[in-house]
Specification:
The structure holds 2 protein chains of 2 kinds. Chain A is of the alpha/beta class. Chain A has helices spanning 9-28, 71-84, 97-105, 121-129, 160-167, 175-178, 197-207, 223-232, 242-247, 270-275, 290-295, 297-309, 313-318, 325-340, and strands at residues 30-32, 60-66, 88-92, 112-115, 134-143, 145-149, 157-159, 188-192, 218-220, 236-240, 252-254, 256-258, 281-289, 321-322. Chain B is built from 20 helices and 2 strands.
C-alpha cells in the first residue's frame, strides 16, 4: 500500500482509519497457516499392547458391524482404543451377525463383523464374490442363558430335549405338554430374530437343524424386549446372551441346563462356561476383512489391540468369558499372516 | 333462541317446542376432555423423562429451598405482577429472556461447529470469497446500471464460479493468516456490527446513529475479546456468543427503552439471572449438594462410553447439527422452488392441469409415507446408485431431506396461496411482469409462512431415527464428523442405541438425558418458528 497524499481530506481520514485497523490486526497477531487441517496434535502415544504401529499417527475409519451379542465387547474395545488413538474414528453398530455379513461386511462396507456363530458357507461365497476375504478370530465365550419368569417356581432345570420340544417348529403349546407336572398354561415365547447369530446357534445346537424354529414366538433384535416380555408374564420363556442376564438377575430367573437326561444341571455363569461344564456355552467371533487389514493400518492396529485385550478382564466386565492366552496367541498369529498377505 | 316456543312448525322444534342445549354441552365437555387428556399425557411424559434426566430427588432439600427462594419465587412473583397488570409486560419479559437464551444456544451451536468440525481458515476463505463475488456483482451493477439479462447472468455466474473459488483457494493457501479469534472478530463480529448498525440506522432514520451503533458493537466485540483473554477465557467464545446473544439483546433493549414500550418488562431477565447467580453462590458457600443429574456439562461434551456415568452425546450432537445443515441446504430451495412452480406457473386446466393435480395429490400422499420407506429409498438412491458410502453425513442428510421435502412443499404452497390475489393483480396493474411480481410481491409476503413451515419440518427431521438405521448410521461413534463425507451418528440414533443396552442406567438415566437434549434442540427450533411468525404477523 503506497502512501499517496490526496487533496480530499475525507479520503485521508479513511486511509488513516483503514491503516489503523490493519495495524491493529497486525499487532494483535497472525499465525502460521497449517493448511486448513486441524493440526493433528494428538499422537498415538505409548501403546501398551506393543503394537508395531506405535510411533505412527494413525487416522481413518474402522467400521464394525454385526452381532448384537458381540457389540458390547467391540464397543468397550473401541472406547479403549480411542483413548490412545484419538484420530482414528471407530464406529460400532449392532446389526445381527447375519445382517452384518449380508448387508455390510460382504458387500465391502465394513472392516470388521462381529458374529455369535461361525460364518456360514453361503456368506463366505457372498463375500468372495465381492473379493472380501474374512479372517476369523475367536475373541470370547458366552453362556447362552434361558430364562423364565421369577414366579415360575415349577421349573429350575431343563434338558436340551425339553428345549427342543418347546422351540422346534410346531413345538409344544402348553407347559404341561412337555412335562405333565408343569401347569396347564400356554407358553409365551420371546427370542432373537432370524438375522441373529444367537438364533442360528440355538437352532443348530439345541434343535439340531439350522434355521428350524417355531414361528409363533416373539422375535426381536433387542434383548431388553425379551427380558421385559419374560418379566411381564408368568408363563413366558426366552433366551439371550449372558451379559443381559447379569444386568437383570433380579428381574428374571435363569434356568439350569443339562445336555441330556443323564447330565447334571448346570447354572449359567462365566466360570461354568469357561470350564466347559455349561452345555450352552458358545464361542464369539469377530471377522476382519483381509483387504482392510492389509490396506488400512488403523484396522490392523485396532485388531491387534482387540485381540490382545480379549484375553483380559475387560471382556469379563462386559459379561463374557475372555479368550485364553493360547487363543490370543493363535489370533495374533492369524492377524500377522493376514497382514503379510499369506 | 333456545327457549323460543314454536307455533308454526311443530315438528321442527320437537314436541316440547324447545331446543335442548344438552347435546352442545356434552359435545363441548367431550372436546375439553380430549384436549386435557392429550395435554396431560404429553406433559406427564415430559415430566417423567425430565425427572429421569435431572434426578432432582438426589439433591439436598436445602438446595431446592435456596433456589426456590432466590430464583423461583421472585421471578414467579414478578411475572404474576406483569400478567395481573395485563399491559403486555409479560410479552416484553418473555422476549427479553428468550432472545439472550436462544442467542446463547445458537452461539454455542456455532462454536461447537467451528471448534471441532470446520476449519477457521476455510471459514475465513469462504467469507472472503462470498464478499469478493458480491463486490464484483455490485460494482458491475454500478458501472453498467442497465445490463442485459444475459450479461447480468454472465457476471453472476463468473463471479460465483471463478472469482469466489480463486479467492477461496488463495486464502486457504496463504502462508500467514490472522489468529482464529481475529478471524471470528472480522467475520462474526463485523457482520454483527454491520447488522446492528443497519437496524439502528433504520430505526432512528439516522446514518450517524447507525455508524455509532456499529462502531460500539465492534468495539465491544473486540474489547471484550481482549478482556476475557486476560482472565484466561478464549476470546473466540466471547466474540461468537456476544454476536449471537449480546447484539440481539442489546438491540431489543434499545428498542424497548427508546420507544418506552413497557420497559418494566426488562426487569424480568435481570431477576432471573441474578437469582441464578445468587442461588449458585449460596449453595456453593453453604455446601448444599445439587442433584446428581445425568444431563450435565460432561454429558454434552463427551463421547459415548460403556460406563453410564461417563457416557455423553457430543459426537451425536455434532452429527445431528451437520446433518441438519445438509437437510436444510437440500430440501429448502427445492421445496420452495417446487411450491412456487405449482402455485404460480403450473397450468390449471387441460391435460397438463390434470397431471399437475395428480402431482399435487401425490405430494400430499408422500408426506404420509412412513419414514422407514424413505430410509430404503435413500439407501437405494444414494448408496447403491449414487455410490456414496453408507453411514456418512451427506447420505443421512439427503435421505432425511427427501423425507421432509413434501412437508416443505405443502407448507410453502399454503403460504404462497395465502398471499391475496389482489396484491398480484395490483402488481400486474402497475405493469410488472410475472417474474417481478413473484420476486417483489409474492415471495416477500409468503416468506414468514414458508420459513415457519420449513422450520417445523426441520424439527421433524432432527428426530427421525428409522431412515438413519436404514442408511447405516452407526450406533456408536467416538469422534464427531469432520465434514460431510465422514461417518456419523445422530442424537435419535444414539438414544436408540442406549435403550438397547443391558444396563439399567443406560435405559433410563442416560437415555432420558439424551431425550431431553434432543427435545431442547427441537423446542428451540419450534420457538424460532413461532418468533418469526409473530414478528411478521405483528408488522402487518
Amino acid at each position: 500500500m503506497t502512501r499517496k497524499t490526496s487533496q480530499d481530506h475525507v479520503s485521508r481520514r479513511k486511509f488513516l482509519i483503514a491503516s489503523g485497523a490493519v495495524g491493529a490486526v497486525g499487532l494483535a497477531g497472525c499465525t502460521e497457516n497449517t493448511g486448513g487441517d486441524n493440526g493433528g496434535g494428538d499422537n498415538s502415544g505409548g501403546d501398551d499392547s506393543g503394537s508395531g504401529n506405535g510411533g505412527e499417527d494413525l487416522s481413518g475409519d474402522v467400521i464394525i458391524k454385526g452381532s448384537s451379542t458381540v457389540y458390547p465387547v467391540s464397543q468397550a474395545m473401541a472406547e479403549e482404543f480411542q483413548k490412545q488413538h484419538s484420530n482414528v474414528n471407530v464406529t460400532v453398530d449392532s446389526t445381527g451377525s447375519g445382517g452384518g455379513f449380508k448387508n455390510h461386511f460382504c458387500p465391502g462396507n465394513a472392516d470388521i463383523n462381529g458374529a455369535s456363530r461361525p460364518i456360514k458357507d453361503s456368506e463366505v461365497e457372498q463375500c468372495s464374490s465381492n473379493d472380501v476375504e474374512p479372517v476369523e478370530f475367536q475373541i470370547a465365550g458366552d453362556a447362552l442363558t434361558v430364562a423364565v419368569n421369577k414366579n415360575a417356581d415349577w421349573v429350575d432345570c431343563m434338558s436340551f430335549d425339553q428345549l427342543k420340544q418347546i422351540w422346534e417348529p410346531n413345538g409344544a403349546q402348553k407347559w404341561s405338554d412337555v412335562n405333565p407336572e408343569w401347569p396347564d398354561k400356554e407358553f409365551e415365547l420371546y427370542g432373537p430374530a432370524s438375522s441373529s447369530g444367537t438364533f442360528d446357534w440355538f437352532t443348530e445346537n439345541v434343535i439340531g437343524e439350522s434355521g428350524a424354529m417355531r414361528e409363533d414366538y416373539e422375535p426381536t433384535e433387542d434383548d431388553n424386549t425379551i427380558i421385559q416380555g419374560i418379566q411381564g408374564s408368568e408363563t413366558a420363556m426366552g433366551f439371550f446372551g449372558y451379559a443381559y442376564y447379569e444386568e437383570n438377575k433380579d428381574a428374571v430367573k435363569a434356568l439350569k441346563i443339562k445336555k441330556d437326561d443323564s447330565g447334571t444341571c448346570t447354572a449359567p455363569s462365566l466360570d461354568n462356561a469357561k470350564s466347559g461344564d455349561y452345555p450352552m456355552a458358545r464361542p464369539l467371533f469377530i471377522y476382519g476383512a483381509k483387504s482392510s487389514i492389509q490396506e488400512k493400518p488403523q484396522v490392523e492396529a485396532f485388531l491387534e489391540f482387540y485381540l490382545n485385550k480379549a484375553e483380559t478382564d475387560l471382556v469379563k466386565k462386559v459379561g463374557y468369558v475372555p479368550s485364553s492366552a493360547e487363543q490370543r496367541d493363535k489370533n495374533l498369529q492369524k492377524l500377522e499372516q493376514a497382514a503379510s498377505g499369506n | 333462541m333456545a327457549t323460543e316456543s314454536g307455533t308454526r312448525d311443530q315438528s321442527w322444534f320437537g314436541d316440547t317446542g324447545q331446543i335442548s342445549r344438552l347435546p352442545g354441552r356434552v359435545f363441548a365437555a367431550t372436546c375439553l376432555g380430549a384436549t386435557l387428556f392429550a395435554i396431560l399425557t404429553v406433559f406427564g411424559l415430559l415430566v417423567y423423562v425430565a425427572n429421569d434426566a435431572f434426578r432432582p430427588a438426589t439433591a439436598d432439600p436445602r438446595w431446592h429451598l435456596v433456589f426456590f427462594l432466590t430464583l423461583v419465587l421472585p421471578s414467579l412473583a414478578l411475572f404474576g405482577y406483569y400478567v395481573a397488570r395485563g399491559d403486555g409486560e409479560s410479552w416484553v419479559a418473555a422476549t427479553a429472556l428468550g432472545i439472550p437464551f436462544f442467542g446463547l444456544l445458537l452461539g454455542s451451536g456455532v462454536l461447537l461447529l467451528f471448534i471441532d468440525v470446520l476449519s477457521v481458515v476455510a471459514w475465513l476463505a469462504f467469507v472472503l470469497a462470498v464478499l469478493a463475488a458480491a463486490v464484483v456483482i455490485k460494482s458491475h451493477r454500478r458501472i453498467r446500471p442497465a445490463p442485459g439479462f444475459l450479461e447480468h447472468l454472465l457476471v453472476i455466474v463468473g463471479s460465483l464460479g471463478a472469482v469466489a473459488p480463486a479467492v477461496y483457494f488463495g486464502v486457504v493457501n496463504l502462508p500467514v493468516v490472522p489468529t482464529p479469534w481475529l478471524i471470528y472478530l472480522l467475520t462474526f463480529g463485523a457482520a454483527g456490527a454491520a447488522l446492528a448498525g443497519l437496524v439502528v440506522a433504520r430505526r432512528r432514520s439516522s446514518d450517524r446513529a447507525g455508524l455509532t451503533a456499529a462502531a460500539l458493537v465492534f468495539a465491544a466485540a473486540a474489547g471484550g475479546g481482549l478482556a476475557v483473554s486476560a482472565v484466561g477465557i478464549e476470546p473466540e467464545i466471547w466474540v461468537v456468543l456476544f454476536t449471537f446473544a449480546g447484539v440481539p439483546t442489546a438491540l431489543y433493549v434499545e428498542s424497548v427503552l427508546r420507544e418506552r414500550e413497557r420497559p418494566v418488562g426488562l426487569l424480568f431477565p435481570l431477576v432471573v439471572v441474578v437469582g441464578i447467580l445468587l442461588g449458585a453462590f449460596l449453595v456453593d458457600t453453604l455446601g448444599f449438594a445439587g442433584p446428581d443429574s445425568w444431563l450435565d456439562y460432561g454429558f454434552l461434551t463427551s463421547a459415548d462410553s460403556r460406563f453410564p456415568e461417563e457416557a455423553g452425546i457430543y459426537p451425536a450432537l455434532i452429527g445431528s447439527i451437520l446433518m441438519m445443515v445438509v437437510v436444510a441446504a437440500a430440501s429448502f430451495p427445492i421445496g420452495v422452488g417446487a411450491a412456487l412452480y405449482l402455485e404460480e406457473y403450473a397450468p390449471n386446466d387441460g391435460a397438463l392441469g390434470a397431471i399437475v393435480k395428480l402431482v399435487q395429490i401425490n405430494i400430499g400422499n408422500l408426506a404420509g409415507v412412513p419414514s422407514i420407506v424413505y430410509g430404503l429409498l435413500g439407501l437405494a438412491l444414494f448408496v447403491h446408485w449414487g455410490g456414496l458410502r453408507p453411514g456418512i453425513v451427506i447420505v443421512g442428510g439427503l435421505t432425511i431431506g427427501l423425507l421432509i421435502l413434501p412437508i416443505i412443499i405443502i407448507a410453502a404452497q399454503e403460504a404462497i396461496r395465502a398471499v391475496p390475489d389482489s396484491m398480484r393483480e395490483a402488481s400486474y396493474g402497475m405493469g410488472a411482469t410475472q417474474w417481478q411480481t413473484i420476486r417483489r410481491v409474492v415471495l416477500p409476503e409468503a416468506l414468514p409462512g414458508i420459513l415457519t413451515g420449513s422450520i417445523l419440518g426441520f424439527g421433524r427431521a432432527i428426530g427421525e431415527t428409522a431412515p438413519l438405521l436404514m442408511i447405516g448410521a452407526a450406533a456408536t461413534v467416538y469422534t464427531p464428523p469432520n465434514g460431510f463425507f465422514d461417518l456419523f451418528s445422530a442424537m435419535p440414533r444414539q438414544i436408540y442405541a442406549w435403550v438397547g443396552k443391558p444396563a439399567h442406567e443406560f435405559q433410563y438415566g442416560v437415555m432420558a438425558a439424551g431425550v431431553v437434549t434432543l427435545l431442547v434442540v427441537l423446542l428451540s427450533m419450534n420457538a424460532a418458528a413461532i418468533l418469526i411468525r409473530n414478528k411478521y404477523q405483528r408488522r402487518t
